[in-house]
Amino acid sequence: MLTQQECDFLHSRMQGTMIEALGMKFIPTDDEYAVAALPISSVTRQYLGILHGGASLTLAETIAGVGSLHLTQYDEAYAVCGTEVSGSHVAMSATEGVVYGKARLIHASKGTHVWNVDVVGEDGEVISVERVTNRIIKIKKDGSQSLRIPTEK
Q1: To the nearest 10°, the Cα dihedral for 41, 23, 33, 101?
Q2: Residue 132 lies in a domain
Q3: What range defines the domain where residue 134 resides?
């Protein structure tokens, strides 16, 4: 879904954010998935040494948001805002290495996108599953937000 050019652009825009602080990296793919990698490190582990559930949810919301940005073609007339994130942690994570968030669009309307995100370990095992809903908000020319649902391009 994401091209290398998009990933480079996103990395440049994420400087100084939590995404950069966690070490998250976007990965180009040729399929319908938006993908990002997150290292398991001292900043993403919980007290048992495994990946913190909040880090999994952050990864899921981030990669689903990036997927929605891709679908809106990064049009500055629209803001992508996460409105709901829920997750189920289904397996114990590794204590080191990298996990991957793989987001797949399951619904797109003029005003909302719904994504399923699997967080998987390097071995491909699913660690957690998340559902993310994004609202697509039209930005008025004066900079304020409009609750009007944008028209499709």
Answers
A1: 20
A2: yes
A3: 4-146
Q: In sequence order, what DSSP letters do the residues of 36-66 get, joined into one string?
A: EEEEE-TTTB-TTSSBPHHHHHHHHHHHHHH
Q: What angle do CA 126, 104, 107 make, to 5 degrees?
A: 135
Q: Render pLDDT for 29-78 as a digit per residue (tens, 0 to 9).
A: 999 999 999 999 999 999 999 999 999 999 999 999 999 999 999 999 99
Q: Which two tokens stand for residue 57?
A: 């949810």
For 147, residues 6+ apart whose C-beta sits below 8 A from its C-beta are 137
Paired with 133 in beta bridges are: 84, 114
Q: Residue 153, exposed/middle/buried by CB under 10 A (0-12, 13-18, 19+)?
A: exposed
- Name the pTM for this structure: 0.91
Q: Per the domain annotation, does 151 fall within a domain?
A: no
